[in-house]
Amino acid sequence: MTETLEAPGGKRGLRGALSGGSDHPHYKWVALSNTTLGMLIATINSSIVLISLPAIFNGIHLNPLSPGNVSYLLWMLMGYMLVSAVLVVTLGRLGDMYGRVRIYNLGFALFTITSIALSLDPFDGGGGAMWLIGWRVLQAVGGAMLMANSAAILTDAFPAAQRGMALGVNIVAGIAGSFIGLVLGGLLAEWNWRAIFWVNVPIGVIGTIWAYRSLHDTGLRRPGRIDWWGNLTFAAGLTGLLAAITYGIQPYGGHSQGWTNPWVLTGLIGGVVVLALFVWIERHVSEPMFPLGLFKIRAFAYGNIGGLLAAIARGGLQFMLIIWLQGIWLPLHGYSYESTPLWAGIYLLPLTVGFLAAGPIAGHLSDKYGPRLFAAVGLLVMALSFGGLLVVPTDFNYWAFALLIFLNGLGGGLFAAPNTSLIMSSVPAHLRGAASGMRATFQNAGMVLSIGVFFSLMVAGLSSSLPTSLSNGLTAQGVPASAADQIAGLPPVGTLFAAFLGYNPIQSLLGPQLLGSLPAANSDTLIGREFFPHLVSGPFHDGLVIVFWLAIAMALIGALASLVKPAKHQAEPAAE
């Protein structure tokens, strides 16, 4: 099979002149700036909805805590990330075959069009939710096109001596985007929930036109056939597995969680079986979508293990910090529940600053001294920050909290660029698109897994102490013991979602009739800002201990994986 290198001349003469040409020293900076914008907008939209869910559900007149609406809530949370995780490998492989820039540019255009559709949601209630979920799925296809090919475009454009720096800027911008989305979502949701999607439109239009006019393929392109069976089994298996893990946090059959639900078990077992079939297919087709031979390269294999573990830990941290701030700390410090999404985003800024401070520096230094040590040190710093968060009280001093999340961001920034450089520099040039997609798959799958893993652990921690706290707290305010016990017996996942969304559920749990029968002082206390946070702070901390210990373990294992040296016949990632 012949490999082709697309020339910068010919029909691309004007485009080459605009960007300096693929061999012009300025082209690599054009590629870096545009792909960084693409990564930023794609990852901002993975979290901008996360913190804006109360405003979105109010805007479409849907109660997110109603049992029948929990599925809408979960798909709003995970749909974008799930589709991204499933498709990035396929879209990276298509980039290898048909041109990485071509797929990347199409992704920018699709992302912009779907953002317009999302902002124009014409329905209310369940119909409005389905409109948003459906268009978010299509938006995720565009986002996956951007994520799957940006690292490969940069690896093609930059020499090995500068590659770590370029990938560092790009990847850290992408990871920081998930935290910038929290702040941006909080700000825009205060004004109008549709603005969460409007904000993408001017950026997307500018980015799309810029990409089509200035970017062109500079790397090897290998024509081939699409592995349809591999694509189908991979998508079906990963979707079933990740969806089942996420749905496992919903109560079922009198249990606080749904791991005995036949549909969840079918998704778990069936997902694993279909993924095993996918591996068999990939080993027997001539042009696999997922080149399993890449896992024989130690830097690629262990780099992706470290990336997966870091993504799970980072996703878990994100969810836990939102619950901690919106459900407990901010109401205790005088913030209304309606304003907690905005202020939670603002108070999480040190996390983003840490990422932005460390990422490009770590990329530059890893170019000079090698990526493995920096990646390992980054995860060790993350583990240290998780340990610090374990010992701060639930009603913490903000500056201690800010320092710890800054350290966590710093560790994530130290890890991200060297880890990506380690992975991308270890693979053959013609497989960089597939390798970029595989790396993004592990990262996106880690974020989806974090929903199921950490929410399940938190529910397990709450189950042991929340019922007693609820019952005692309610009866102390004059609520009849029978009503208090009934509320205390409800699955704790509802309380967890309430804290996550910045809701005070006590008023809806008790109802107007019961609240009206209590003395005014007791009723005011129950629906005030401090009762619910005080009530759940102890049980929440019990769950937090379990979550953060697991995050520490993941960070330490990831650090060890990052330190694994290549086999003797495999060279260290270096110059080409």
From TrEMBL:
Location of this chain's protein in the cell: Cell membrane
Database matches in InterPro entries: MFS, MFS_dom, MFS_trans_sf
Domain spans labelled Major facilitator superfamily (MFS) profile: 31-570
Membrane topology: Multi-pass membrane protein
Record key words, sorted: Cell membrane, Membrane, Transmembrane, Transmembrane helix, Transport
Keyword Membrane: yes
UniProt key word Transmembrane helix: yes
Transmembrane segments: 37-60, 72-91, 103-120, 132-154, 166-189, 195-212, 232-250, 262-281, 302-330, 342-361, 373-392, 398-424, 445-466, 543-564
Main location: membrane
A Pfam match: MFS_1
Gene3D superfamilies (alphabetical): MFS general substrate transporter like domains, Multidrug resistance protein D
CDD domains from the UniProt entry: MFS_MMR_MDR_like
Name of the protein: MFS transporter
Organism for this UniProt entry: Dactylosporangium vinaceum
